[in-house]
Specification:
The chain has a single domain (15-267), classed as 3-Layer(aba) Sandwich (Rossmann fold), CATH 3.40.50. The chain is built from ten helices and nine strands. The chain has helices spanning 26-35, 49-61, 78-88, 113-141, 162-181, 200-203, 211-215, 221-233, 243-254, 257-267; strands at 15-21, 42-46, 66-70, 91-98, 144-149, 187-192, 196-197, 218-219, 238-239. It is 47% helix and 16% strand.
């Protein structure tokens, strides 16, 4: 009697998930809280294991399916590690929230070179690498989206914030252009560009003792996150929460560059 061939079990389809980088603090944490209400599995990414554990436990108590991945996005293999972590959980990235970011304040010539290069690695390279890694799958499925966290600093050159402002200008330009490319594909791309938000990133820099900090309007992370998520789900490519922030952006576009640079240079000095 001939033996019947053993049939391999069909592979289980991977479930859609929301990936949030920089999830342990600031806007990233608030976006994770907002996104958790949608009921999709979540993979939260950050460098702080303890803060990730706290957030995962908090979201779990509310019924969310969340797990944490402690990795450094400045490392070159971070994207592969993240993709493997999703696969191990039977998930694919349906929504990518690029919230991880680094801020540095001070003259370029005086700042630590490695710290400045690390800022570029996290704010631009990692954001781009993760987007390039997961967007093709979204396009193939005709479903999904990317929410990138920019800043109103990306709308103007920033003396003493040169690399930070330049990195956020890249995020805005990349997001808007990619969104135009993907129009009609079922995949949306949004840039949230808040003003000064009281987060750990802000508190870790001396920006808080400048004239600029004194006059800029404040926003809190929960409100900025809520505005960003609404805009993302509405398919908008760009959102600047807060009327005052929108006025600042439009006003800066009207000033001659030389005058704008003098103004920002003056305001970014220590009080």
């Amino acid at each position: 009697m001939l033996e019947q061939p053993v049939r391999a079990k069909p592979a289980q389809p991977m479930k859609p998930a929301i990936v949030v980088t920089g999830a342990a603090s600031g806007i990233g944490r608030e976006l994770a809280r907002v996104a958790a209400r949608e009921g999709l599995p979540m993979l939260l990414v950050d460098r702080s294991q303890s803060a990730l554990d706290e957030l995962v436990a908090e979201l779990g108590r509310s019924g969310a399916q969340a797990s944490g991945l402690c990795i450094d996005l400045a490392e070159r293999d971070a994207g592969l590690c993240l993709e493997n972590a999703l696969a191990e959980r039977g998930l694919h990235c349906d929504v990518l929230v690029n919230s991880a970011g680094i801020g540095l304040y001070g003259p370029v010539a005086e700042a630590d070179r490695e710290a400045q290069l690390r800022l570029l690695d996290v704010n631009m390279r990692a954001l781009t690498e993760l987007t390039l890694r997961f967007v093709p799958g979204m396009v193939a499925r005709r479903h999904g989206g990317v929410l990138n966290i920019g800043s109103i600093a990306g709308y103007m050159p920033g003396p003493n914030l040169a690399l930070y402002s330049a990195s956020k200008a890249y995020v805005k330009s990349f997001t808007v252009a990619l969104g135009a490319e993907l129009a009609g594909s079922g995949v949306t791309v949004t840039c949230l560009a808040p003003g000064v938000v009281r987060t750990a990133l802000f508190m870790r820099t001396p920006l808080g003792v400048t004239r600029l900090n004194k006059i800029l309007p404040r926003a809190d992370a929960p409100k900025a996150a809520a505005a960003g998520w609404r805009a993302f789900r509405a398919g908008k490519r760009l959102v600047i929460p807060g009327l005052a922030n929108r006025i600042i952006v439009r006003g800066s576009a009207l000033l001659p560059e030389a005058a704008l640079l003098r103004l920002i240079s003056f305001l970014s000095r220590m009080r």
